[in-house]
Design goal:
- It is a single chain.
- This protein is mainly beta.
- The chain has a single domain, classed as 7 Propeller (Methylamine Dehydrogenase, Chain H).
- Helix content is 1%, strand content 41%.
- It is built from 1 helix and 28 strands.
- The longest helix has 4 residues.
- The N and C termini lie close together (6 Å).
Length: 362
């Protein structure tokens, strides 16, 4: 068994490999001095593909691909993601790279800033704007969240190719049932406390992350800007699952790749105090779809801890038992080979960790 752990940081991409998820060999930084906010690990073909959303301060954002686990990279001369001229927009950053369903190995989705969705049908070499979302009548009123105006969650349905769910800050959750031609705002039950005239609007919520139950794809979990929710009907309606957590504010939400209803969360104290709750480094796990939560900290720092974990800086691999990975803004990355029960340090003193992704690659 070989697991690849990809760590996107503010100054490049680091790649770590392990046969036992305890000893790691790391390379990098790849794309030194660039911000890597998005990594896709595509294991649907015989040779796994790594995709990196690279934001170069001089040449702009691009998507690079590697079919040899980072030994070499294909960096296109022309930008693979670009807004058509009639939109009047320019790409600022790639926030999400999401492989499509298993039986569509050439489909890759990209969520970007400013808020838009792109689709590739050639494995990530070129992308086209999904016009149905771009032309949505809500789009002119979407606002930037604290991190930017971006689509940061893209969740293809594993079996229904016409279904896709996206989420953004600040605009909320949207879904399509016709392959992207039309989109419906799907935020019923999600509170936007910062909108005093209507705290439960049709759209405009600042959703931080959404995850899908791998065994029950109509069940979804969301971390909102103050609020933790579950949907049992594909995102049509949402109910709170924040009870049992020390705070309802945070960024990541991760679903177990095999076990139905198992999710991971990293609570922060509040909007205005973005430190881990009680200044302790703890990952919270629910094994009953959010009905109850358990703090996990064995092997994590015991002293006071003040760094936060960003929306894509926590992930699971697809091994059995699943590995769980979390990276902090002070450059530390921890791994658990037993679904969060015990943790160990993989890397320290890295730049600001923006995203982590992990997968079996052999």
């Amino acid at each position: 068994m070989t697991v690849l752990l990809a760590i996107g940081t503010g100054k490049g991409l680091f790649l770590a490999r392990s046969e036992d998820r305890r000893r790691w060999d790391m390379t990098g930084p790849h794309f030194s001095m660039t911000a890597v906010y998005a990594v896709g690990l595509d294991t649907r073909r015989e040779r796994p593909r790594v995709l990196a959303g690279v934001t170069n301060p001089h040449f702009g954002p691009t998507v690079a691909r590697s079919d040899d686990l980072g030994a070499t990279w294909d960096e296109p001369e022309e930008a693979p993601i670009a807004f058509p001229t009639d939109t009047g927009e320019a790409l600022e950053r790639v926030w999400q790279l999401a492989p499509g369903p298993a039986d569509q190995p050439d489909i890759i989705y990209a969520g970007v800033e400013p808020s838009a969705l792109f689709r590739s049908s050639d494995g990530g070499r070129t992308f086209e704007l999904v016009r149905g979302l771009w032309d949505h009548p809500h789009r002119p009123t979407w606002e930037p969240g604290g991190g930017g105006k971006a689509i940061h969650t893209v969740l293809p349905h594993p079996t229904d190719h016409d279904q896709l769910l996206i989420a953004m800050s600040a605009g909320g959750v949207y879904r399509t049932d016709d392959g992207g031609k039309s989109w419906t705002a799907s935020n019923t039950g999600i509170r936007a406390y910062f909108l005093p005239d209507n705290e439960y609007p049709d759209y405009g919520q600042c959703v931080h992350k959404v995850a899908r139950n791998a065994r029950q794809p109509e069940q979804l979990f969301a971390q909102n800007h103050h609020g933790v929710y579950r949907s049992d009907d594909g995102g049509a309606t949402w109910s709170s699952i924040a009870e049992g957590l020390p705070s309802d504010f945070g960024f990541p939400m991760v679903a177990h790749p095999q076990r139905s209803g198992v999710i991971y969360n990293f609570p922060l104290t509040a909007d205005g105090r973005r430190f881990p709750t009680q200044e302790r480094f703890r990952v919270f796990r629910s094994e009953d779809a959010g009905a109850s939560w358990t703090p996990l900290s064995a092997g994590l720092p015991a002293e006071a801890f003040y760094a936060s974990v960003l929306r894509d800086a926590m992930a699971c691999d697809d091994a059995d038992p699943a590995g769980v990975y979390v990276g902090s803004r002070n450059g530390e990355v921890y791994a658990s080979a037993d679904e969060g029960e015990h943790w160990q340090l993989v890397a320290s003193h890295l730049p600001d960790v923006l995203c982590v992704r992990a997968a079996l690659v052999a």
